[in-house]
Each structure stands twice: as C-alpha cells, then as structure tokens.
Amino acid sequence: MSLNNKIEYNTSIYYFLIANQATQKEIGTFIDNSDNLNNINDLNTIVSNAREILKSDNTSIKGKKNKLSLENHNIYYMITTTDFFYLAAIRKNSQYCKKENLIFELMEDIDHQGIKKLVDKNGELTNVGKQNLKFSIEKYQESNKSKLTKTNFFDLISSSNINQNNKYTMVNSQINEVKNDIDSNTNNMITNINDTDDLDNKSLKIIEQSMKFQNDSNILDKKLKCQKIRNWLIIGICILLILIIIIYIFVK
Predict the structure, then answer these.
(1) Residues 86/78, Cβ–Cβ less than 8 Å
(2) What is the pLDDT of residues 140-151, one digit of tens each?
(3) Is 29 helix (H, G, I), strand (E, B) or coil?
(4) Domain for residue 50, yes or no?
(5) pLDDT classification of 4: cutoffs 50, 70, 90
(6) Around 3, how many Cα atoms within 13 Å sit in the side-chain half-sphere?
(7) Domain range spanning residue 51?
(8) Closest CA to 36 of 68, 78, 8
(9) Which residues contact 10 (CB under 8 A, 6 or more apart)?
(10) Is residue 137 domain-resident?
(11) Orientation angle between helical segments 153-251 and 127-143, nearest 10 degrees
C-alpha cells in the first residue's frame, strides 16, 4: 500500500457526530486524530456547520438523508424517525465521495447497534460508547476498503491486523472500565462496612451512657427519698418536743 493511499484512506471519515435532534444535544463525536492533513480551521468550520444543521427545522428534514458541500469537505447527515441525528464529514479527495451510499449505510448500522444509548448521566457517550463508535467507523471503513481502493494480499493481511488490534483495544478498554467500576464498588462497600462498625460502636456507647444515666437517676431518687424521710422525722421530733414542753408547762 502506498503512503498516498494510506493517508487518503485514514482521512476518509474525518469527523462523525451523534446527537439528539429533539433536544439538540450532542451525544458524542469521533475525530480522526491520525489525520496528517488535519486543519483546525476545517474542523471549526465542520463543527459550526454541524451545529447549524442540528438546530435547523427538524420537521422538514426528519427521516431524510442530506448532503452539504463545503470547500474541502462534503458533509452527510441523516435524521432518523426517532429524532437521532448522525453527521459525517468526508474530505473531497476521499473515495467515499464517490460511494455516498456507504456513508448512510454506516449511519444506519451505528443507529441499529444502539451506540447512542451508551451514555452517562449527562447524556454523553461513556468511554465504552466512544470506543464502540471509533471501532464501528474503523471497522466499516476497513470492510469497505476493497470497494474504495485497490487491494492486494499484503493489504488484506494489514487490514486484518488493524481490525484485530482495534478489537483488542476496545475489549481492553471495556475490561478496564469494568475493573474500575468493581474497584469503586468494592471501596464503597468497605467504606459502608467501616461506617456500620462506627455506628455500632457509637450505639454501644449511647447504650452504656443511657444505662449509667439510669443508674445515677435511681441512686439520686433513693437519696432524695431518704432525705425526705429524714426531714419528716426531724419535723416530727420537733413537733413532739414542742408538745412535751407545752404539756410540761401546763402540768406544772
């Protein structure tokens, strides 16, 4: 495979966007970072046009497939009947511009895969969703490579290796994300167990303090009763002495 063919092939799908047409919210994007012809101005123009299309009147384009021609790119977009928006930017020197039906086939395939549902709480693609989108685009380009460029035996071997590496990358990414989730859940469980032990210790301390308070209350109650009885005895003795003195005075 020549260098020119490789560059042209790698830059076939330069930018890809998934969004929700009803809410006009972007769900996820794919940008070919390996593009040696990458131009930031081109990317800004594409993103700007993509957002303008997304904000256009959805009642007139829902369920349709359309094309927008720019200076260096062609933009293809499709809006499904369920309000999901797909857009791809293709360089005009790409062979895909001669096989436009393949672009829309890719969008339909990605829609059927349900990648749009692999989102986080903010409604944006998770790492697994981004990897699946990247893998689907690269796999689709690879599978249609024979339709776009000349191939030979060595190209097919290289294609197989690239495809296999992409699979390994995606699987490793998924494994790492699951591992991170397991580690996070394990840490949360350990924290919850420690919190439970701490609550048990606090509960035991509260029970001990409550029992001590009850004992102190009983002791105080007994002391008050004894003091009350002693006071009544003293009062009784005083009254008795007064009576004895009075009787003694009258008898005398």
Answers:
(1) yes
(2) 877 766 665 544
(3) strand
(4) yes
(5) very low
(6) 2
(7) 3-118
(8) 8
(9) 32, 34, 35, 36
(10) no
(11) 170
